[in-house]
Design brief:
single chain, 4 helices, 60% helix
Length: 150
């Protein structure tokens, strides 16, 4: 469990570092990789995920409530010793908290990974989406439903 927890912390730190780097030092820089399919550049997003036009105080309140629900889930999974679920919810929480922090401090989310034919996103977004998919998979397949032995 410790390696997964360490990885979750590492991803959070990497996301925060990348956001600070792009926002403070690379606002006018673009790095093209893979023949321009992948670019690293600063993009600010005042809207919700995938730039869906929904923003403002209502969005911040909703995100705050979601973070509270995630904390409740973390407590439940820790008490039930369901550490697979705990780690996945923790990674979602870290990603959501990192993006929420951006909204509170800067008024927008800092994105920096630009995939051609998609949208600009960040590591926190990947943390949320990938962990969310894995969490749904675990729930649908019943994997990880049994707690670890005490």
């Amino acid at each position: 469990m410790a390696p997964l927890f360490t990885m979750a912390i590492f991803l959070l730190v990497l996301d925060r570092f990348s956001k600070i780097l792009f926002y403070n030092y690379m606002s006018n820089s673009t790095f093209s990789l893979l023949g321009g399919i992948l670019k690293l550049r600063l993009a600010t997003n005042e809207n919700i995920a995938f730039s869906i036009p929904f923003s403002g105080v209502i969005l911040e309140v909703i995100i705050g409530l979601v973070l509270i629900l995630l904390i409740i889930g973390l407590i439940k999974y820790a008490v039930d010793r369901q550490f697979g679920f705990f780690i996945l919810v923790l990674v979602i929480f870290f990603g959501a908290a990192s993006n929420f922090y951006d909204r509170l401090v800067w008024g927008f989310v800092v994105d920096y990974i630009d995939l051609k034919w998609f949208t600009v996103f960040n590591i926190a977004d990947m943390m949320i989406v990938i962990s969310g998919i894995l969490l749904i998979y675990k729930i649908k397949t019943g994997r990880g439903q049994r707690p670890l032995a005490k």
